[in-house]
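Attaching the record inline, Q. Sequence:
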Amino acid sequence: MTSIRADFDFDDIRPYQDEEVDGVLSELVEDPEFLGAVATLRLPRLFRLSKTLTRSLVRRKLKQKLNQYHSISQLQHAVEKYMSHCLKDTAATVSCDGVENLDPAKNYLFLCNHRDIVLDAAICNVFLHRAGYDTFRIAIGDNLLKKPYSSDLMRLNKSFIVKRGIENLREKLKELIKLSAYIRLSINKDKQSVWIAHREGRSKDGLDKTDTALLKMLNLSGDKELSFAEKSQQLHIVPTAISYEWDPCDLNKAEELAALVKHGNYEKSELEDINSIATSIQGWKGDIHVSFGEELTESFESAEEMAEEVDRQILGMYRLHPSNLAAYRRLESNIPRDLLVDEQRLIEADVELQRRLDQLGEDEQVVLLNTYANSVRSLLKMQASASI
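Structure, as predicted:
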């Protein structure tokens, strides 16, 4: 049996429970910052004219809307309906494979590549729910939860908090052990699957690489007598890959990465993450594909060995889109024959790429092209290594 320390208090990181929903929603609709954020996104012109009036209108509307929700499942059902509606308007196709190979009797740790703040986990959750599985708990970094209302919103959606801003090494280790214990508790005791990105932060440059530190964190809890392999197998880890033909936030990401190269730092605006979430949900994404991989049942004796297999699965499952291939062709001239797609789709993708490039400076254009092309490079590099 897995040993989980009983002295942990998870209240500061765990998702909210049904009995907390009414109280949290009541506080949210009275939070001026939350009302201001909603007003900025939904009624920007009116909010600029009269902040007090707009907050009042938003408060009244939210109270009417949220009064019908009294449990986490009710909220999640509403989120799924909203997400499904948005995807109909912002995606050409949304497809999935591999979910049919999951065992309904198991709870899994879905280790996923990370491209979008909220959509990655949300879309994976939608496909699992449609297949008859319970929704999973979602790991989310506290760097995205700078405002109390953002933390409340995420925790109402079965998210738990990963504390990343701790400087003191002893405190940091303590929180990592606690996080590891919570993930293990979720899967083995609470019978709840978990979604976590395979590295810290989004892959803004299009390079999907599993962080071995994350895999080591997962095994900070559990019976000390067990090996790395045995502890890992208890978590039922399933590599998961998600790909978007077009990233609605690609221009912003290109500007951020270019600024980091030029100046060594990039300062986010106060509402940048909230705006990124709104842009990613509302923006055009083209084709989206999710692949659930094979559970890691092999006895990996180190985080490095496991990371290689996770990368192999994620890169192998990642669906390349015409956008990736068109960018690669611009930078590398030739697309490998086995990756070729319909020429008309490549031409259309190239036209759309140019439209996006026209909105950027020269340095940012290079970043944007590489971001889309890097998925092709990663696959070719993996294939070349496998053939040696």
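Residues 1-16+76-247+283-317 form a domain with the Glycerol-3-phosphate (1)-acyltransferase fold (CATH 3.40.1130). Residues 227 and 301 are 8 Å apart (CA to CA).

More tomorrow.
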